């Protein structure tokens, strides 16, 4: 059985991400696999390349053939250099930078306006008085109905 180390595609149109897998060469691109040994996200900046070095060394040692794309990834991670004994053996994969803390520009004016203070408290005081008067009127109407019946 011919075993290949290749990429298995996931994701939407124009937003791919891949898993690095070990599969029989006769299976479909996204078909059944023997083992997943890593992942590759080319759309991130810098690209995410995460390959289990120990498993990659094992499969290369037992005769699995990497595709061109996976061979390029293995060269970046240093696994190909460890296997063949030629080339760099340390990883050349760039780590993603952390997000910078947001700092507001003090020279600009604030966009948010302060809330306006309530100009008069008299209308606010009248509203509860009106509510009390309607309550007393409804209570008086209820008593009138009871006396009529």
From TrEMBL:
Biased composition (Basic and acidic residues): 96-120
InterPro entries with a match to the protein in the record: Ribosomal_bS16, Ribosomal_bS16_CS, Ribosomal_bS16_dom_sf
Swiss-Prot/TrEMBL GO biological process terms: translation
GO molecular function: structural constituent of ribosome
Cited SUPFAM superfamilies: Ribosomal protein S16
Region feature (Disordered): 83-149
Keyword check for Zinc-finger: no
Low complexity biased stretches: 121-141
Keywords per UniProt: Ribonucleoprotein, Ribosomal protein
Cellular-component GO terms for this entry: cytoplasm; small ribosomal subunit
The family this protein is said to belong to: Belongs to the bacterial ribosomal protein bS16 family.
PANTHER family tied to this protein: 30S RIBOSOMAL PROTEIN S16, SMALL RIBOSOMAL SUBUNIT PROTEIN BS16M
Protein name: Small ribosomal subunit protein bS16
Organism: Agrococcus carbonis
Source taxonomy: Bacteria, Bacillati, Actinomycetota, Actinomycetes, Micrococcales
């Amino acid at each position: 059985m011919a075993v290949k180390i290749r990429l298995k595609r996931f994701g939407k149109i124009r937003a791919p991400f891949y898993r690095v897998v070990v599969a029989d060469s006769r299976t479909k691109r996204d078909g059944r696999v023997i083992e997943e040994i890593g992942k590759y996200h080319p759309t991130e900046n810098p690209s995410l390349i995460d390959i289990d070095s120990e498993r990659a060394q094992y499969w290369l040692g037992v005769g699995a053939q990497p595709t061109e794309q996976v061979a390029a990834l293995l060269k970046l991670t240093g696994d190909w250099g460890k296997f063949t004994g030629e080339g760099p053996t340390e990883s050349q994969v760039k780590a993603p930078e952390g997000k910078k803390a947001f700092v507001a520009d003090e020279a600009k004016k604030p966009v948010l306006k302060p809330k306006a203070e309530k100009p008069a408290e008299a209308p606010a005081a009248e509203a509860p008085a009106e509510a009390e008067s309607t309550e007393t009127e409804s209570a008086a109407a209820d008593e009138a109905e009871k006396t009529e019946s």
